[in-house]
């Protein structure tokens, strides 16, 4: 038994170094919900809940996640003893959707469990790498040449551009003119429709590493049709919210690559099931990012250490987005790689003083409440 005593939630607001701009809007301050799961011996595990303040990315928001966590999810987790983190998914499947709220709570339990076992989270879930390749995202509005010079110097091994519809070629060719060998992709963020099919096919000659999520999340048919017409691999992101979504996409040949975000699929347990499926079907994976703090980033690093994560993920350095992180050390990119922490759990420790400074609301829920 894991002997949970209480779970404390902290909503924090962290200023970004630069606004993160997509076609859907800009993020200047990143709000997240941190969860600290504490056992009877005082050991803590931490998780991060990653929806945005408004529902521009998914239907979940910080406020909806807070309400669900405090009213339903955390009380249900604490209502019955937990033997293993996989219990959490089964317990929370009672409630529909709300993947990011579920994932944040489960992440804290996984971190605590690994610490109780005196193992790194990466080893606990079957990780095989001591370093993972790092990729980087360049948002709209950033100084392209300046950022490319900075990221190339750090050795990043995959470059993802946020783009405006209809202006992709100009931006992509600008990058390729600076470095024709750059592993380059762009994120469609679901902003294209059937009428854009020919336009997307016309970008095939650029030889991109992939095009990520061109069509809306619920559409597997258009992705299949586009993949049939292009050599460039199509990668699904927002379409994949569960094991079944991944299975369906593979069966329909709607994708050749999958981006796995633990928050988007409901947690690490579901992500592990997707990993097994994709390993069996030889579908390459990479770990996507959600502008996480060091807590969520450390969980992502553990996931990316699994063998089927063969493409560099959105795992950049702590200082990519934040002047100061909420962990005591830094996640650093050296020669395009990030070290997988060897310490217990996620291997990172909290800067509690800074967490307290950033906290805008907090609540503690005890076993038996």
Order of helices and strands: EEEHHHHEEHEHEHEHEHEHHEHEEHE
What shape does the CA trace take?
globular
Q: In angstroms, what separates the terminal alpha carbons?
A: 19 Å
Helix content: 25-40%
Helix count, DSSP H or I runs of 4 or more residues: 13
Strand order of the largest sheet: 5-6-7-8-9-10-11
By CATH reckoning, the class of the largest domain would read: Alpha Beta
> Could you give me the name of the CATH homologous superfamily of the largest domain?
Enolase-like C-terminal domain
CATH architecture annotation of the largest domain? Alpha-Beta Barrel
CATH fold field value of the largest domain: TIM Barrel
The structural domain count equals: 2
Radius of gyration: 20 Å
Strand content: 15-25%
Mind explaining what this structure looks like?
By secondary structure, the chain is α/β, with parallel strands linked by helices. The protein folds into 2 domains: 4-118 and 351-366, Enolase-like, N-terminal domain (Enolase-like, domain 1, 2-Layer Sandwich), CATH 3.30.390; 123-339, Enolase-like C-terminal domain (TIM Barrel, Alpha-Beta Barrel). Helices cover 34% and strands 22% of the residues. The chain has 13 helices and 14 strands. A 7-stranded parallel sheet has the order 5-6-7-8-9-10-11. The chain has a 4-stranded antiparallel sheet with strand order 3-2-1-14, with helices on both faces. The longest helix is centred in the N-terminal third of the chain and has 18 residues, at 62-79. The protein is globular. The protein starts with a strand and ends with a strand.
């Amino acid at each position: 038994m894991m002997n949970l005593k209480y779970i404390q939630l902290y909503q924090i607001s962290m200023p970004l170094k630069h606004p993160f701009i997509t076609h859907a809007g800009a993020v200047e301050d990143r709000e997240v919900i941190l969860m600290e799961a504490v056992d009877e011996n005082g050991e803590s595990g931490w998780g991060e809940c990653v929806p945005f303040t408004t529902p521009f990315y998914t239907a979940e928001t910080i406020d909806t996640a807070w309400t669900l966590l405090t009213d339903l999810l955390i009380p249900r987790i604490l209502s019955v003893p937990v033997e293993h983190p996989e219990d959490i998914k089964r317990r929370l499947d009672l409630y529909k959707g709300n993947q990011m709220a579920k994932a944040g709570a489960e992440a804290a339990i996984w971190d605590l469990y690994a610490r109780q076992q005196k193992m790194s989270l990466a080893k606990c879930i079957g990780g095989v790498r001591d370093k993972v390749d790092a990729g980087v995202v360049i948002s709209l509005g950033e100084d392209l040449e300046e950022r490319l010079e900075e990221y190339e110097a750090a050795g990043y091994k995959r470059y993802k551009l946020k783009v405006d519809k209809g202006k992709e070629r100009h931006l992509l060719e600008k990058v390729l003119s600076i470095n024709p060998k750059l592993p380059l992709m762009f994120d469609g963020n679901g902003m294209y429709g059937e009428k854009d099919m020919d336009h997307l096919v016309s970008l095939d000659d650029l030889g991109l590493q992939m095009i990520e999520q061109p069509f809306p999340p619920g559409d597997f048919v258009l992705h299949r049709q586009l993949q049939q017409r292009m050599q460039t691999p199509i990668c699904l992101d927002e379409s994949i919210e569960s094991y079944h979504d991944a299975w369906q996409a593979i069966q329909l040949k709607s994708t050749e690559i999958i981006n796995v975000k633990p928050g988007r699929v409901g947690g690490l347990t579901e992500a592990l099931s997707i990993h097994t499926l994709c390993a069996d079907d030889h579908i390459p994976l990479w770990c996507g990012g959600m502008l996480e703090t060091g807590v969520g980033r450390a969980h992502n690093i553990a996931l990316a250490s699994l063998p089927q994560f063969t493409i560099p993920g959105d795992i950049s350095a702590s200082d990519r987005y934040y002047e100061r992180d909420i962990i005591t050390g830094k996640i650093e990119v050296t020669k395009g790689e990030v070290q997988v922490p060897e310490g217990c759990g996620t291997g990172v420790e909290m800067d509690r003083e800074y967490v307290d400074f950033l906290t805008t609301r907090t609540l503690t829920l005890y076993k038996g409440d």
